[in-house]
Automatic annotation (TrEMBL):
Alphabetical keyword list: Membrane, Transmembrane, Transmembrane helix
Membrane-spanning intervals of the chain: 6-25, 37-65, 77-96, 103-120, 132-153, 174-195, 207-229, 294-311, 317-338, 345-364, 392-411, 423-446
Record-given protein name: D-alanyl-lipoteichoic acid acyltransferase DltB, MBOAT superfamily
Length: 447
């Protein structure tokens, strides 16, 4: 069972909402935790057992950490040992998931959330958990099981005392969830199909246009998949009266490579950069290269690597991260000064082109063909601009391409916001009809 399955949309989610509404207010944290674990059981039994065991063990270990810090408050060894244990367990789970697909469901989110909690606690921004249910909901809430977002203690846990259920929250969350669901089923899956069709071509048959369409389709599949799961997570959280940060915010309209990467998974990237650089205040400055020193550039590299591994833990991600970081260095030290003299739209176009080019090590099934693909992307080896096969694939997926071009920037969001302010009543009716139509269309595609 996944968020985009019929059983989740029409059976599990309505039943979960009913149970949550019927549960007394002081029991709702435990209720949401148990509902989350039921979801994991239905989605993947190994993942549910691993998460439950991990959660129970770590809650006990937190008690020992409290005793250790009471005796040795100035020694960070306890935090480091706890974080190392979490990383090792996650690596073992990833290895096990090769034999049992789905076993790592929720594992990345759990590990990143725990490490973020340990970091915040070491900085005095988080307290101890006195309730197991609070800790379990904080780390294993099912709404953020796929791609996050990674939540922080000071912004997420205080909401547990105010859990409520209302028609307004449910309707608002349902709208957000349906938008994410449509992005996943209509655009992300369509872009993935186009990418797979283009990737199946022999590398010697790539033309200049088909090579760039390959990396474009991969970029759209990445963006809309993350955006879809982020919207569904925020929608589900809103249904249960919880607020979480955005996962992604239109990275392809960023004006620098660092800003582009930082927008792909914002909570995770910010956490990694904050830990490595030692300062939360430097994150915004790093996105524009203001006064970045060597340590902070290393923090940027760490952020790039972790975000890549989070989305697709394959060896090529490390090469992609190194490839992208070379662009970061070139942008920072060679030509960043030029950006002062060109329009913002052109800056975004250049950054988007560089990001597409950086995907070359990731997009081909045969890694050994990466050099040939790069040569074609640069126009050195392409014999033709476009081939018959490419024309056929583009013609059969033209709707996905048009939707991708329409929604991969914030233009549609800005237009919707403008119309909502000018025509609030009419906008509500239009949004209701539009989302109802989206749900019907998405259901038809799923069936």
């Amino acid at each position: 069972m996944t968020f985009s399955s019929i059983s989740f949309i029409y059976l599990y989610l309505p039943l979960a909402i009913i149970i949550f509404r019927l549960t007394p207010a002081h029991r709702r944290v435990a209720c949401l935790t148990l509902l989350s674990w039921c979801y994991y059981l239905l989605a993947s039994v190994p993942a549910a057992l691993i998460l439950a065991a991990n959660c129970l063990l770590d809650f006990v270990l937190l008690s020992f950490l409290e005793l250790y810090l009471a005796r040795c408050p100035d020694k960070p060894v306890g935090y480091l040992a706890f974080a190392a244990k979490a990383v090792v367990v996650q690596i073992l789970v990833m290895a096990y998931s090769h034999w049992s697909p789905g076993a790592s469901l929720g594992g990345f989110v759990y590990t990143a959330t725990l490490i973020g909690y340990l970091w915040d606690h070491s900085r005095g921004k988080a307290g101890y958990f006195r309730s197991f249910w609070d800790y379990a909901l904080f780390t294993t809430f099912f709404a953020k099981s796929y791609l996050g977002p990674v939540v922080r203690y000071d912004r997420f846990v205080p909401q547990f005392s105010q859990l409520r259920s209302s028609a307004t929250l449910i309707s608002r969350g349902a709208v957000q969830f349906v938008i994410g669901l449509a992005k996943k089923v209509i655009i992300a899956d369509g872009a993935l199909i186009l990418y797979q069709e283009l990737a199946s071509l022999p590398v010697e048959e790539y033309t200049f246009f088909s090579a760039w369409m390959l990396v474009f389709a991969a970029a759209m599949a990445i963006f809309f998949t993350i955006s879809a799961y982020g919207d569904m997570a925020r929608g589900l959280c809103s249904i249960f009266s919880l607020e979480v940060p955005r996962v992604i915010y239109y990275p392809y309209q960023a004006k620098s490579v660092v800003e582009c990467v930082s927008r792909i998974n914002m909570p995770l990237y910010d956490l990694v950069v904050e830990i490595v650089s030692g300062s939360a205040e430097r994150i915004r400055q790093l996105r524009r290269y203001r006064h970045a020193d060597t340590r902070e550039l290393i923090a940027v590299l760490a952020g790039v690597v972790v975000v890549g591994i989070w989305f697709d833990p394959v060896p090529q991600v490390l090469l992609w991260a190194g490839f992208l970081f070379l662009m970061v260095l070139a942008e920072r030290y060679l030509y960043f000064w030029l950006f002062r003299y060109i329009p913002g739209l052109l800056q975004s176009a250049v950054t988007f082109g560089l990001f597409l080019f950086s995907l070359a090590p990731l997009v081909l099934p045969q890694f050994s063909n990466t050099g040939d693909l790069i040569s074609v992307l640069l126009g050195f080896s392409a014999q033709r601009m476009i081939s018959d096969e490419t024309s056929y694939y583009l013609a059969s997926n033209y709707l996905v391409i048009l939707l991708s071009l329409l929604f991969f920037t914030s233009l549609a969001d800005r237009l919707t916001g403008f119309l909502s302010k000018k025509f609030p009543v009419a906008s509500e009716w239009v949004i209701a009809v539009f989302n109802g139509s989206l749900l019907i269309l998405t259901t038809a595609l799923l069936v």
